[in-house]
Design a protein that fits this description.
Helices cover about 40% and strands about 15% of the residues. With about 230 residues, the chain is an alpha+beta fold. The model has no long low-confidence stretch (mean pLDDT about 95). The structure holds 5-O-phosphono-L-ribulose. 5-O-phosphono-L-ribulose binds next to strand 1. It catalyses: L-ribulose 5-phosphate = D-xylulose 5-phosphate.
Length: about 230
C-alpha cells in the first residue's frame, strides 16, 4: 500500500464516522496502520470533518513521531499507538464520543452481553476500564489511557472483543482495518443503546451463555456459516 492510499483510507474512515452519526464537531478520530512499512495514518487534532482531505492525514512512525503531514496529529495518538503495539493483529483504531457508548463509559459500567446482535460481534461484555490514577492522569495521559485498556485486556482476546469503554471518557474500537474498526464503533453504539433501553424495560436481564457462544461462533468460529462463502 502506498502512503497516499493509506491516507485516503483513513480520511474516508473519519468521514464515515460523520455518516454514521458517531461524531459531531471534532469529537473523534480514526487511524490505520501499514505494518509492512511501520507507518500509521491518523486524523489531525481539532480539524473539522468538513472538507477533510487525504492530504490532511498525519503519518507517524511506530513511536508516534510525525514523519509526514502539515498538521499536529490527534491528541489521542499515543492511545492508538499503544493499541497497535499491544494488539498485533489489528489494522485500524477508532475513538468517538458516541452518545450511548459514552454514557456507559461515564457510568463506569461494562455493557453486558444481553442480545444476539451484541454476541454476533463481541464474545462477552464490552469491558470498561478502571479509574486512572493521579500519576497516570498527570503523566503521559494518552499513553496511559492505552495502557489501562491493555491492562483490562489481560485475560481478553482483542479479536473476540473489538472494543472497550474508557471510564469517564468514551469508546475505542478496533478491527482488521480502518473500515472494520468503524463498523465495530457503529455496532458498539447500537448495542449500548439497545442495552440501555432493555435495562429500562427490565432491570433483571440475562442471556443464556450458549446463545452468546452460538451467535459469536457462527460468525467467527472455525465452522462459521453466517453470510455468503
Ligand atoms: O477525547 C477527546 C476529548 O475529550 C478527543 O478524543 C476528541 O476531542 C478528539 O480529539 P482530536 O481532535 O483527535 O485531538
Amino acid at each position: 500500500m502506498t502512503r497516499n492510499e493509506l491516507k485516503e483510507i483513513v480520511c474516508q474512515a473519519n468521514l464515515d464516522l460523520v455518516k454514521h452519526g458517531l461524531v459531531i464537531f471534532t469529537w473523534g478520530n480514526v487511524s490505520a496502520i501499514d505494518r509492512n512499512e511501520g507507518i500509521v495514518a491518523i486524523k489531525p487534532s481539532g480539524v473539522s470533518y468538513d472538507n477533510l482531505k487525504p492530504e490532511d492525514m498525519v503519518l507517524l512512525d511506530m513511536e508516534g513521531n510525525v514523519v509526514e503531514g502539515k498538521w499536529k496529529p490527534s491528541s489521542d495518538t499515543q492511545t492508538h499507538m499503544a493499541l497497535y503495539r499491544a494488539f498485533e493483529s489489528i489494522g485500524g483504531v477508532v475513538h468517538t464520543h458516541s452518545t450511548y457508548a459514552t454514557a456507559w463509559a461515564q457510568a463506569g459500567r461494562d455493557i453486558p452481553n444481553i442480545g444476539t446482535t451484541h454476541a454476533d460481534y463481541f464474545s462477552r461484555e464490552i469491558p470498561c476500564t478502571r479509574d486512572m490514577t493521579e500519576t497516570e492522569v498527570k503523566g503521559e495521559y494518552e499513553l496511559e489511557t492505552g495502557n489501562v485498556i491493555i491492562e483490562r485486556f489481560n485475560q481478553i482476546n482483542p479479536v473476540h472483543v473489538p472494543g472497550v469503554l474508557v471510564k469517564n471518557h468514551g469508546p475505542f474500537s478496533w478491527g482488521k482495518d480502518a473500515h472494520d474498526a468503524v463498523h465495530n464503533a457503529v455496532v458498539m453504539e447500537q448495542v449500548a443503546k439497545m442495552a440501555f433501553i432493555a435495562y429500562n424495560i427490565n432491570p433483571q436481564l440475562d442471556m443464556n451463555p450458549l446463545l452468546i457462544e452460538k451467535h459469536f461462533m457462527r460468525k467467527h468460529g472455525p465452522n462459521a456459516y453466517y453470510g455468503q462463502k
